[in-house]
Amino acid sequence: MPHPAALLRARLARPEILVVPGGGSPLELKLIEGAGFEAGYVSGYAAAAARHGVPDIGLVAYAEQAELVRATRQVTDIPLIVDCDTGYGDVANVARTVRGMEALGVAAVQIEDQAWPKKCGHMDGKIVESEDVALRKLDAALAARRADTVVIARTDARGPHGLEAALSRCRKFRAAGADVLFVDGPESAEELRIIGRELDGPLMVNMSESGKTPLFPAAELEAMGFSIVIFPSSTVRITVRQVSAFLADLKTGGDSRPWMDRMASLSETNAALGLPEIKAFEATILEGRKS
Q1: Predicted confidence (pLDDT) per residue in 206-230, tens digit
Q2: Statement to judge: residues 125 and 225 lie in one domain
Q3: CB of 43 within 8 A of CB of 233?
Q4: Which of 36, 157, 232, 237 would staple 166 via disulfide (CB 3.0–4.6 Å)?
């Protein structure tokens, strides 16, 4: 089977936009694969929420994200784009992050230019590193690669310094060798169009519902010039809303039956978790021992 990075690069060579849902748990990524998506996004926001129950404000470190990726790779085959925040430090940390993620078989690593502790890209009060620091960390990521891992260079400069500063950084990221550019937090449709027009692709865009960036369907984002659209935290937000509603009803009535049509059956859940495939594998081994 081709390396996940090769699969992702081949997919990015096609003209149609790549729609990539995100998650913060192996179950979410497994469901994304089961739904037929061509890649999954291991979201820093969703990982903080689903794996650790905390907000995305720099509380999750490299080892915790690596353990999530390791668990996810054991139950998925699709290429994974992994949000590696700031690389978890300076040059040496970034190199360790890239090589560690490569060893886990990821397709792409995303490194941003925020100062630590970083924040979700759609929160206020972000601080970005100087261009020199951002560029040396990108150089480290590119130099550390031992495989053809895709390096996504993200800037959060739009919030504190404006769109032109973000564009300027991305041009320098491209000149340094970044494979994909990602301006997070544009605040209007016109800003999205400017990014798509002014920067060379491939470009990634973030559809974070109720965040700073207006929402558009994938087809319109493709027309604007974007190659990848991520939906990083949609699944965890649905979990928060729907599970909270179920628990409120259960607390009031002590009865789960009103929710039966809104939850997967036991057999559906087992199927989503791969139980039929495991049982088939077991049967093959046991039959082979008998012959």
Answers
A1: 999 999 999 999 999 999 999 999 9
A2: yes
A3: yes
A4: 157
* Mean pLDDT of the 150-156 span: 98
The DSSP element (H or E) to which 229 belongs, if any, is: strand 228-231
Token pair of 61, please? 């470190």
CA distance 81 to 29: 11
Give me the amino acid identity at 19: V
Q: Is 245 among the domain residues?
A: no
Q: Looking at the structure, tell me whether residues 63 and 159 fall in a common domain.
A: yes
> Do 203 and 272 belong together in one domain?
no
Task: Note whether residue 100 is domain-resident.
Answer: yes
| Threshold 0.85, pTM exceeds | yes
- Helical segments of the chain, H only: 4-12, 26-34, 44-46, 52, 62-73, 91-103, 131-144, 158-161, 163-176, 189-198, 218-224, 234-253, 266-272, 275-290
β-pair partners for 41: 22, 81
Backbone angles phi and psi of 43, in degrees to 5: -85, 135
At a CB cut-off of 8 Å and minimum separation 6, what does 289 contact?
none
Query: CB under 8 Å to 19, separation ≥6 — which residues?
Result: 37, 218, 229, 231
Q: Are 47 and 173 members of one domain?
A: yes
